[in-house]
Amino acid sequence: MRERDRPTAAGEHRAKTTEEAARIARRLKKAGHPAPLGDPTSGVMLVVEPPVGPRVVDALRRSLDSVGLNEAHVFWSSTGLLLEALLAAEPSVLAAIGPEAAREIDDMGYPLVRRPFSESAEGEWFSWTAGAAGLRLPPLAPALDDEAAKRRFWRAFLALRELSPAGGMGRT
Questions:
Q1: Any idea what DSSP says for residue 111?
Q2: How confident is the model at residue 169 (pLDDT cuts 50, 70, 90)?
Q3: CATH code of 131's domain
Q4: Where is pLDDT greater, at 15 or 94?
């Protein structure tokens, strides 16, 4: 095998993560849950609380696109597979959308947590673990029908702009 044909460590890690995410997605589908969205190797993972329906998915996709993060990995809470998904993706940024998602993240016993989501302010970055930033966001479903909830969600969600290549800090 020539040197240039050998797989790189990064390529092997990406393939392993993609394969594990596909396995988790198959388990979700079999259990009747929606499939995750985005790229599990993007470094950015959002965990969304129920209810998850077409309006929530569409609004989230449009919101991510507007801040330049359409590749972010979106996973649904209350599936029983969140810890596996986190361990597979190893995100450098984790956002909890809604208090139920934040509680589920806090309750799963993820190793080396520096600060739980429940102790963090909405829309403000914090150090979740040594290698991952956290962001707690308001729930999305109420924002679909209530203007005040929509403004609250959007103000907090705009913190994600920092992650897009054109947005600023490039936290990932």
A1: T
A2: very low
A3: 3.40.470.10
A4: 94
